[in-house]
Amino acid sequence: MTAYNDFKIISSSNNFSGASVIPPDVATCSNCLEEIADPNNRRYKYPFTACTDCGPRFTVINSIPYDRERTSMEDFPLCSECEVEYEDPEDRRYHAEASCCEVCGPDVFLYKDGMLKIENPIKRAAELIDEGKILAIKGIGGTHLVVKTTENGPVDSLRQKLRRFNQPFAIMSPNIETVKGFAEVSDVESDTIQSRRRPIVVLNKNSDYSLAPSVSPYLHNLGVMLPYSGLHHLLFSYSTEPAYIMTSANMPGEPMLINNEEIISKLDGIADYFLLHNRRIINRCDDSVVRFRDGELAFIRRSRGYVPEPYDFSGINQKLKVLALGPEIDVTFSILKKENVTYPSI
Ligand SMILES: [Zn+2]
Ligand SMILES: [Zn+2]
Fold first, then answer.
1. What SS3 state is found at 249?
2. 50 CA to middle of ligand 1, Å?
3. Distance 46 CA to ligand 2 centre (A)
């Protein structure tokens, strides 16, 4: 056996042309969540806490190889404490490209006719949602419109403004125990909804379902996800609601809103308040949606947490090169090359 004395990650060369694959975004890990919840930790209540095991990847990457200088984190040079972690091979933030803290990282702020001077904008946002207001919340790969789910009023108000009268809205619930209070959850659904990919999972409502009927009208099921960013976890830590509607804030036929000025101007008249941040979203990535049929996972939308990871098609005729196009409404072309199928995230 060879003994090694040292381990280094060295700078990538500029003419890199290897087969590096851009990794998908990963939900905040349990170690980072412990830090966010620990009053003695320097990342206490910091919504952008991330490490090598978790955080944004695809949504912040400009180009490969995946180094900080090629991500939107380049806008936030590491402070001395973060730098020590980043340089230490023994630290779980060794070369964690999305690592940051309150001193050096992105900021979150609440906006209504200007930036509001509030000590804790996330807490205030949760209070406003619980009061029945509509919030636009900029997230990891796009923007959500958010309302409470225990009264029809705010849900109907959102429906009127979006002119979406019957389409079910996806919801986010703070934890799996709360989800079991209103939905049936099988073992495989439970594993998937809690996985680091954190898709929306379509679940059957259970006999105790008591959320507002207008969340998912005329349907026996609804799409549910769990928090996947520090900001989501913090929001629910300040809320008394069992779930929030979190529907993607894009106008019909238009891509998701990712730019602060655009979010404010396009959602003017729809959102009462805006919870925004100053990290650029490089690649849009909507929430993935899955359902289970006879225990088999089926995608309704394959996006955050999965893309741009290719499908493994090993075992089929490798001489075949296929370009697949369609369907009619969404652009979902795919390319089969060697053993992998790749396609863009829309
Ligand atoms: Zn982490
Ligand atoms: Zn820092």
1. coil
2. 5
3. 11
Q: ∠95-98-101 over CA atoms, to 5°?
A: 105
Question: How far is the centre of ligand 1, averaged over its atoms, from the C-alpha of 70 (Å)?
Answer: 20
Q: Are 50 and 99 in contact (CB under 8 A)?
A: yes
- Which residues make up the CATH 3.90.870.40 domain(s) of the chain? 108-277
Block means of pLDDT (10 residues each) for the chain, 346 residues, are: 72 60 92 98 98 95 86 96 96 95 98 94 98 97 97 96 92 98 98 98 97 95 98 98 95 86 96 98 95 93 90 72 71 72 57
Determine the distance separating the centroid of ligand 1 and the alpha carbon of 285, expressed in angstroms: 20
Q: Ligand 1: distance of its center to the CA of 63 in Å?
A: 23
Domain 108-277 carries which CATH code?
A: 3.90.870.40
Q: Give the angle subtended at the CA of 228 by the CAs of 62 and 51, to the nearest 5°.
A: 60
DSSP letter string over 263-308? HHHHTBTTBSEEEEESSPP-S--PPPEEEEETTEEEEEE--TTTTT
Which pLDDT does position 317 carry in this prediction? 66
* Interatomic CA distance for residues 216 and 223, integer angstroms: 9
Contact 150, 292 (CB under 8 A): no
Distance 273 CA to ligand 2 centre (A): 28
Q: What spacing in Å lies between the alpha carbon of 93 and ligand 1's midpoint?
A: 8
Q: How many whole angstroms from 238 Cα to the centroid of ligand 1? A: 21
What pLDDT sits at residue 318?
A: 66
Fold of 10-106: DHBP synthase (3.90.870)
Q: How far is CA 15 from the centre of its chain?
A: 31
Note the ligand closest to the C-alpha atom of 83: 2
Give residue 228's pLDDT: 98
* Sequence ranges of the chain with CATH classification 3.90.870.30: 10-106
Length of the chain counted residue by residue: 346
In angstroms, what is the span from residue 49 Cα to ligand 2's centroid? Answer: 10
pLDDT at 346: 42
Distance of CA 104 from the midpoint of ligand 2 (Å): 4
Output the CA 120–ligand 2 centroid distance in Å. 19
